[in-house]
Amino acid sequence: MDRGLYKTDIEGIMGLSLQNEGIYVISQFPIRCKYGYILDFAIPNQKIDIECDGEVWHQLGNKKDKNRDGYLKSRGWIILRFKGNDIKNNIQNCINKIKGAIKENV
What we know:
This protein has a four-stranded mixed beta sheet with strand order 1-2-3-4, with helices on both faces. The chain has four helices and four strands. It has 106 residues and is an alpha+beta fold.
């Protein structure tokens, strides 16, 4: 798969699915802070962060992810994390959760 703008295959699947649903996101969105966080996908005006977590890199309970999520939540961001297998096997369920967060955060 040609990833284009996306760093991983699961980001590519998510990005194309978001685009097909008409959900405007910015990929690889930088958070300007001393930690230099980069969000996989962001809806900045609603402060929604969409993360695509590969099973190897983002293990359940990853301390780095918890610290990052805590920092973003303390600044009003909503973090949505999706595991790679969920993205590959049921992308529509992921999209529905994102749509739900968008509706709740209007």
